[in-house]
Amino acid sequence: MKQAWVLAPFIWLSCARNVPQDSATGPDGRIKGALPITLDNGEGIAKGIVTYPGGDRVDWRSIELPTGKRGTLDLKLSWRTPRPGLRVAFDVFDQWSTPIAVEKASLRGKGRNRETRIDHAMGTYFVRVFAPRRGDAGAYKLVASFQEDPPIITTKVDVPDPPRLAAVPLPKEECLQWDAHNTECNHACPDDAPPHWRGCTDTCRTPDANDPACVHSMKCVAADTRVDDCMRNQTSWWKACDFANPDPTNPRCNAPAPPVAAKIILVEEQGDDVIVTISAGSANHIGGDWKVTVLSGSTDTPLVGGTAKVLRVGKQQTTARLHLKRDQIDRNQNVRLSPP
Predict the structure, then answer these.
(1) Do the domain assignments include residue 187?
(2) Which of 7, 37, 222, 285 could pair covalently with 243 via S-S, beta carbons 3.0-4.6 A apart?
């Protein structure tokens, strides 16, 4: 494993590739090949690089404490990564391959530092430095410090291999740039996708009312009934409808004509009913299927029993039959004519 703290390797490491995690690892990728950290006056330092996309995910280091000595072993890992968000981690095993400190459980630290302390440490310890996630890579420095307690006698034993790190499942690769081989791009439309790429079928790339994908999202730039934004703001793009001569291209003519307020100007009794003449007609866009509602006094409240259909429509007047008494009409002469 190269020990130089340099920038050049990160140019290659910064792009995660789908390679086996140990395709480029050396002997230190296994516990039996662990490189020793020599303690000088109780302190030792190891440096290196681990990279999942580079195929060198794991570095093993060993720390052999002074024979027959027991004390406190402090381990501190710091690292630098080619881009923000990447991580380097470590865990510790004793000489019997028992986990002593594992990532997420007993390691302390924030940002780009992790540390752990082992009390009553003795014998040999193995530190596994690794890139925890696919895409992680970094140059690291591992500092080991040992402070001696009263000595005890230990027995050195053979160290079996601990379980290998489980392979990390392949993550879904986000479609940020068009790649016909990236399945995430099948339903995405990045800016550099070809004009007829299947992921762009429902994407409005250039606003055009002739493109069905655009009519729901584009802004209205000219009156066009196909564009949702135009139809939401009809009063801004079309003039009020002339219901006497409705324009079929004006969507405001598709709305019902507004009610017309008028007065009863003539009353004729016919048996139990009355025929009333109203002061509004076809000049006010009133049709033969309109409804007449007599209002109570000067209010907008309908008079009970005061509704009827139009009998005849003239240019300036309309007649209707009402099932009301003459004196009721005399007291309530305001009417409202409403379209169907």
Answers:
(1) no
(2) 285
DSSP state of 307: E
Please answer whether residues 337 and 278 qualify as being in contact, where contact means their C-beta atoms are separated by less than 8 angstroms. Answer: yes
Q: What gap in Å lies between CA 66 and CA 80, rounded to an integer?
A: 31
State residue 153's pLDDT score.
Answer: 63
Alpha-carbon gap, residue 204 to 216, rounded angstroms: 9
How confident is the model over 115-169, as pLDDT tens digits? 999 999 999 999 999 999 989 999 999 999 999 987 666 677 788 888 887 777 7
In a domain, 206, yes or no: yes
Q: Are strands 99-101 and 43-51 parallel, antiparallel or unpaired?
A: unpaired
DSSP line for 238-306:
SPPP-TTS--TT-GGGSSPPPPEEEEEEEEEEETTEEEEEES--GGGT--TT-EEEEESTTSSSEEEEE
pLDDT digits (tens, 9 = 90+) for 275-308: 999 999 988 888 888 999 999 998 999 999 989 8
Question: Are 60 and 108 part of one and the same domain?
Answer: yes
pLDDT of residue 2: 43
pLDDT of 221 > 80? The answer is yes
Residue 89 lies in a domain: yes
Is residue 36 in a domain? yes
Q: pTM for the complete prediction?
A: 0.42
* Cα 116 to the center of its chain, rounded Å: 37
**Together in a domain, 243 and 274:** no
For 335, other C-beta atoms within 10 Å of its C-beta total: 27
Q: What is the total count of domains within the chain? A: 3
| Domain hosting residue 322, numbered range | 260-338
